[in-house]
Amino acid sequence: MFLSLKNVCLGLLLALFPMLFPYSGSGQGLAPAPGIVFDDAALPRIDFYLDPDSLDALYDDPFSDGYYRAQFVFTRGGYRDSVGNIGFRCRGNFSRGAAKKNFKVSFNTFEAGRKWNGLEKMNLNGQANDPSVIRAKLASDLIPDMGTEGTRANHCRVYINEDFYGLYINVEHIDEQFAQWHFGSDQGNLYKCTYPVDLVWQGSNPTSYDYCEWTHGGDRAPYLDLVEFVDVLNNTPSADLACALEDVFNVDDYLRQAAIDVMIGNWDGYIYNKNNLYLFHNPVSDRIEYMIYDTDNTYGIDWIGRDWGTRNIYTWQNSSEYRPLFERLLDNPEYRARYSWYINRLSIQVMAEPEYFARIDELKTLINTAAEEDPYRPLDHGFSIEDFHDSYTMALGGHVEYGLKPYVSTRISNALGQLEAYDMAPVLNHLRHNYPVLNQVPHVTVFAEDDGPSPQVWLVYSLDGTQDSVMMADDGASGDRDPGDGIFGASLDAIDIAVDWSFRIHAYGADGRATKRPCDPVSWQIDLPAIPLFINEFMADNAGYMSDENGEFADWLEIFNAGAEPVYLGNKYLSDNPELPSRWRMPDLTLPAGGFAWFWADDDEEDGPNHTNFRLNASGGSIGIYSSEEEQLYPVHVLQYGIQAGNLSSGLFPDAGEFQELSVPTPGWSNVLTSINTVESSGVQVFPNPARDRVYLGPTACTSWIIQGMEGRIWRSFSTTGDRWLDLTGIPPGVYLLSGTCNQQMLTVRLVVQ
Q: CA 173, 175, 176, 180 torsion: positive or negative?
């Protein structure tokens, strides 16, 4: 199917909607799979090899952030992979002074742009102060279990120069790749916030919030979004807080993580110690996301003399300091009820015996041998192997105030005893629509759940002032992904005239309580595409048809500007996965009206600016153009395609027309062949045409070619047989004659150089 200017496709209809609006099974975020790196079904081995002098220097100055060159080897069962010339150093704060160091691994320090299994960095944490070596892993697992986003983690054995350095936890690094995997875009501002991050309003000067370090961003200026969020959080009247805050912040996912913090006793996080959180301005939703990290001081580990197993769940913050994010939300009756429900869910479902204790036992069995052999275990706190085993069931004294399982039992018992009666309205979050254009079916999805049976969810909408509603369904057949996953979907009939479309979602619980979001209706003008760009042609199985400038036969795709004005491509994206719309940012290029641009889809960006970071799938898939982050990366044009034959291309015919297999591949120029652009009788093809810096001469028996200006000047001559790229560098824009001598016959093609 296709999406075109004249006949907008239904390729963005129900079959595609689950891909456009991605969620985990619980309805929140993307929740990427563990993959080979974070799979905890087995204990991998990670080896580092570095010069002994470098290793000595690293331990002599562990507080240095300078990387040492090393070789990295990852082994899991029959899987083994090695990466040379990686960066290796110590990481952490106070932990750098420990005998058992934490390590940072960087795959791109010495080779820019390099990744391993999609990762640029790895964090290996020794958990020196946790005798069970499991608390941070358990905390990481709770986050997706509660339907929100956080770091993946697993245990591993670490060796340096063949010496065993102990049992470690590999904790996912929060960076732009993390944002891409978990939120679908890496183009938002990412902040690492540490002590004293209280989020109290200090005025509009961004330097007042330098406890949040800006680590990555897209096109938006850093800190302005953070200042706006803190302003709304602190200065909005209580009666208006919900509407104002939900516009700029993912409140519901924060409430889930706040409940996790309180239940695991994460005193070194935001709520008590104003420390250890990340904030990410998600350009897909245009809201800030909150993420927990550094969760080793949990489950009864205490350094400040508090009983975290019995502390009241509603006054858990530091009573001598203000925590507006926690306190203002719990002052709101709707949010307080929802927070109470999440505490209850953790207590009676997610962390409940016997299933949770069985999971703890399973992980302990996995790590037993490595923990017993760990030579660094006793060096920092004197933990014996008996302490490792005992720490699961009893307190050890000192900073280990609880055994792991007794803490869980105590925390749950006290939380349930402290829990207030609550009357909760349905939850609505993650509202999405498909930015429909003329002749396209408008579609909406939303995540909805209640503390009772599944709520009734309605799409209440207006078309040019005429109001109507349609019931949304969570049945797996309404563009809502899987049945019963909390994602509700609904569609309207295709709109064939320009109208103003606005809508809200109404959800009703079995007790009659209602939630209506957003406070102000979503508005969208259904009209011709605002950005008239199209995936005009692609080849997903280039088995020898055309090689790139390096002689490699790579997949390719072509974009066509069907509009009357130039379109800047440099702030827009291409992706083979609608769940990751900002996968590859297009180069700094303006496509003229009626112009074509084509790119190699070869997952090899190092080959040049026209090479994407993804490949096409010959067995079928998706290719999409997505707008800038300011426009929330909405889908400009998405093609769904099936199995592709070798050396054949598919695309729109005529240009921006209907989707079909094309008779002749024409990358970089019109799918409507003319005698100006090709010499069909000889089998010779020249493309792209118009061309910029180079032109490709298709299979030919011609032995020589010249590029001649219309005034007669010969600009360049070539001697060639077979396939050939012709360099146009230095030839000014204009119209030329490209002439070749083929079997004693002169063939001429008109060539336009831009």
A: positive
Ramachandran angles phi, psi of 335, nearest 5°: -70, -35
The three-state DSSP-derived secondary structure of 296-336 is: CCCCCECCCCCCCCCCCCCCCCCCCCCCHHHHHHHHCHHHH
Candidates 578, 563, 559, 571; CA nearest to 635 is 578
Name the CA dihedral angle for 131, 136, 142, 144, rounded to a multiple of 10 degrees: -150
Q: How far apart are CA 180 and CA 184, in angstroms?
A: 5
Q: Is residue 277 within 8 Å of 226, Cβ to Cβ?
A: no
Cα–Cα distance list, 212 to 201, 216, 330, 648 (Å): 14, 12, 24, 51
Query: For residue 382, how many other CB atoms are within 10 A of its CB?
Result: 11
Of 519, 523, 521, whose CA–CA distance to 243 is shortest? 519
Q: Which residues contact 636 (CB under 8 A, 6 or more apart)?
A: 529, 531, 533, 572, 624, 625, 626, 627
In the chain, which residues have pLDDT < 50?
1-28, 674-682
pLDDT of residue 723: 58
Residue 184 Rama label (left phi>0; alpha psi -120 to 50; beta): left
Report whether 119 contacts 74 (CB < 8 A). no
Burial bucket for residue 647 (CB in 10 Å: 0-12, 13-18, 19+)? middle
Strands 68-76 and 79-91: antiparallel
What six digits make up the tokens of 352?
């409940």
| Secondary structure (3-state) at 681 | helix
127-149 exposure pattern, b = at least 16 Cβ within 10 A, e = fewer:
bbbbbbbbbbbbbbbbbbbbbbb
Q: What angle is formed at CA 355 by the lines to CA 36 and CA 154, rounded to 5 degrees?
A: 25
pLDDT in tens, 607-646: 888 899 999 999 999 999 999 888 888 889 988 899 999 9
* Greatest CA separation for the chain: 96
**Token pair listed for 445:** 């999805």
Is 426 in a helix, a strand, or coil?
Answer: coil
Three-class SS state of 37: helix
The SS3 assignment for 672 reads coil
pLDDT on residue 273: 97
CB neighbour burial string for 242-254, b if at least 16 within 10 angstroms, e if fewer:
bebbbbbbbbbbb
This model's pTM is above 0.90: no
Tens-place pLDDT, residues 640-686: 899 999 989 999 999 998 899 988 787 777 888 543 343 433 456 67
Q: Are 128 and 99 in contact (CB under 8 A)?
A: yes
> What is the C-alpha separation between 150 and 152, in angstroms, rounded?
7
